[in-house]
Write a sequence for this structure.
């Protein structure tokens, strides 16, 4: 369930008010979605500061591009797409190329599913953030956002096969890191 | 997507992260500033309010111009003593012929506005193109104008008709034939201003002389007279008067009030029910009115104390409350005087509506998720945007004073202003406190906050009237109401007052 449930009419009113430049409405929209969007930004960012920057730029973009929201689909999904695009652009702007580094000697770990239950959301998010840029981006887009490898390839300007291999490696590295995290916790 | 992926997705589906402090402030600073749209409607409102005050002096300017002429040119007389000023008039039977038409009789005829008779001094030298002589021999009025014999003859025919059995058909024909030469002469003698030309153009419109019946001819004559009256200017009058005293400055210039016989002519004119704006719109009378007003409300909140928290509360209330469409109904009776002054009173049912919109914090919702492979309960907090309406209803006695300007036979503009004497008021709705929690609910009678009597409020407006029938007029207009009284009790720290701007639509039935 959404942390803050709004009926469609109210949401439309809120969006309309934001489009008119109503600061109070903008603040309400920010309060409603900032925490959730922060989690999205955090997943894509390398650290907290970067996540803050993406969140800030993302919200400014949302407020200035609200008129592009058609009003038919989920507003939250539209907003999330804005933030993901912003995160990708941010990375492109600040790092000339995604670091699709190859990390070898990764062991295939099967016991990872149980690990997830033992860690909090924040801990998992932090572990995801520790992944190399390329791994993290592909993992986020494929696993958490549901994009296909084809879409990811187009978005990141890489081949589909690169996206696939990055995902496998990201998955294995993440499992390893989650197990390490468990060990540290215990 | 494998099990690991699914579990990760499930775990992070509604993940949230706290936002850094000051984030909103830095975002807010970069959001494009809302551009205030120019309030054209305010400008329009002001202009509409100013219009009657601009039109009033204009409507009076012709009269004022005439009055500003030197006394050597004319003598302004009332009907009572006008005869004494006709120094060059050969009046063999002056006592009989100067029987004045009593003012009350004129009023009865609907001609109050025309009681004052203006007469041209017959020996005036300041009227260059003519010397006017009014002859009244053996109860006959004949008017001699030296410079225009042809017109004189026609005029003499016309006027002499007043003492003989009245032949209105010939009178109508004569009037029509008189118009052209009068205007031609007026034009040729310096009648060149654009304003005058407009008036001439209007005057030149042919008036069909009907010989079908006395009534229709009278009506036509009356229309012509009306034209001259409505569009009179000092120059027009001077020229017309000089030509033969046929048309003097008075509405009923063809009718000599000094003579008893003319009463009959006036009565015939009245019987003919001429379509005359003066008779209809400036007739004194009583009318009933009913109108409906719809407008937007502007709520004014003021801190009664020096408490800073109250300022915060006002900010919170300004954020959560805004003016909404509000209506009112007026029923009453009014009186219109010939001068155009109106007085109205009756009953007014008025509503002030504002909307309340706030985020109502909800309870904690636990979602039990038993979907395999793991069981995971999620806990989330819900909040609901609440929209409701606050209403203040009042019953008032309005007392309005106004002024109505006739534009033409059908249309007029009325400006009104007055007070609403409050009989009672009630409220329904809710307001929130500093924390966005419900602070007042009108359904809770213990938590009483508002007054039940609001003393005086003020109302004003401008209406555009259209005469639909002889008795019924419809009107639309703009209205403003101001409610200066504090709606809340003295125990509540915020003073509440309201403005309401709106539109009016109504009907008026004249008795």
């Amino acid at each position: 369930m959404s942390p803050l449930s709004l009926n469609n009419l109210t949401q439309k009113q809120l969006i309309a008010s934001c489009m008119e430049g109503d600061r109070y409405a903008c603040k309400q929209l920010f309060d409603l979605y900032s925490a959730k969007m922060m989690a999205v930004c955090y997943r894509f960012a390398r650290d907290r500061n970067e996540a803050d920057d993406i969140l800030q730029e993302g919200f400014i973009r949302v407020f200035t591009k609200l008129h592009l929201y058609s009003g038919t689909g989920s507003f939250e999904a539209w907003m999330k797409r804005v933030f993901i695009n912003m995160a990708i652009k941010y990375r492109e702007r600040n790092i000339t190329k995604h670091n699709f580094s190859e990390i070898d000697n990764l062991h295939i770990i099967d016991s990872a599913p149980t690990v997830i239950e033992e860690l909090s959301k924040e801990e998992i998010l932090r572990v995801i953030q520790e992944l190399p840029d390329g791994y993290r981006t592909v993992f986020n887009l494929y696993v958490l956002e549901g994009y296909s490898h084809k879409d990811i390839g187009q978005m990141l300007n890489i081949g589909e096969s690169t996206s696939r291999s990055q995902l496998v490696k990201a998955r294995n590295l993440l499992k390893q890191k989650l197990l390490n995290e468990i060990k540290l916790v215990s | 997507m494998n099990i690991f992926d699914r579990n990760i997705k499930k775990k992070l589906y509604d993940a949230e992260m706290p936002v850094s402090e000051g984030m909103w402030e830095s975002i807010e600073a970069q959001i494009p500033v809302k551009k205030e749209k120019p309030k054209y409607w305010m400008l329009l409102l002001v202009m509409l309010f100013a219009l009657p005050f601009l039109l009033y002096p204009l409507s009076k300017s012709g009269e004022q111009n005439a009055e500003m002429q030197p006394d050597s040119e004319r003598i302004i007389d009332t009907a009572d003593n006008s005869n004494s000023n006709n120094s060059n008039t050969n009046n063999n039977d002056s006592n009989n012929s100067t029987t004045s038409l009593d003012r009350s009789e004129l009023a009865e005829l609907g001609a109050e506005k025309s009681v004052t008779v203006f007469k041209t001094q017959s020996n005036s030298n300041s009227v260059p193109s003519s010397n006017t002589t009014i002859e009244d021999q053996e109860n006959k009025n004949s008017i001699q104008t030296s410079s225009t014999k042809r017109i004189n003859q026609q005029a003499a025919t016309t006027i002499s008709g007043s003492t003989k059995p009245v032949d209105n058909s010939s009178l109508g024909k004569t009037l029509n034939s008189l118009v052209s030469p009068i205007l031609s002469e007026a034009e040729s003698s310096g009648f060149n201003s654009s304003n005058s030309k407009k008036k001439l153009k209007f005057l030149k419109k042919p008036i069909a002389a009907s010989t079908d019946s006395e009534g229709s001819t009278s009506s036509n004559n009356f229309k012509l007279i009306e034209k001259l009256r409505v569009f009179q200017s000092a120059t027009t009058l001077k020229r017309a008067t000089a030509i033969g005293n046929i048309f003097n400055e008075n509405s009923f210039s063809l009718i000599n009030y000094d003579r008893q016989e003319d009463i009959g002519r006036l009565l015939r004119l009245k019987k003919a029910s001429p379509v005359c704006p003066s008779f209809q719109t400036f007739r004194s009378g009583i009318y009933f009115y009913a109108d409906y007003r719809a407008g937007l409300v502007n709520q004014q909140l003021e801190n009664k104390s020096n408490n800073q928290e109250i300022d915060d509360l006002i900010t919170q209330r300004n954020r959560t409350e805004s003016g909404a469409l509000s209506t009112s109904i007026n029923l009453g009776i009014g009186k219109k005087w010939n001068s155009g002054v109106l007085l109205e009173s009756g009953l007014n049912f008025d509503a002030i509506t504002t909307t309340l919109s706030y985020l109502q914090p909800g309870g904690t919702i636990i979602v039990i998720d038993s979907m395999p492979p793991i069981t995971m309960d999620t806990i989330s907090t819900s909040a609901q945007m609440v929209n409701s309406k606050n209403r203040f209803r009042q019953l008032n006695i309005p007392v309005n004073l106004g002024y109505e300007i006739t534009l033409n036979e059908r249309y007029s503009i009325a400006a009104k202003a007055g007070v609403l004497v409050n009989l009672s008021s009630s409220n329904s709705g809710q307001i929130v406190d500093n924390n966005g929690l419900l602070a007042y609910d009108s359904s809770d009678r213990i938590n009483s906050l508002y007054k039940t009597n609001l003393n005086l409020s003020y109302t004003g407006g401008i209406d555009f009237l259209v005469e639909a029938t002889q008795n019924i007029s419809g009107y639309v207009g703009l209205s403003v109401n101001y409610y200066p009284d504090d709606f809340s009790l003295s125990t509540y720290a915020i003073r509440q007052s309201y403005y309401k701007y709106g539109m009016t639509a109504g009907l008026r039935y004249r008795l």
Observations:
- The mean pLDDT of chain B is 64.
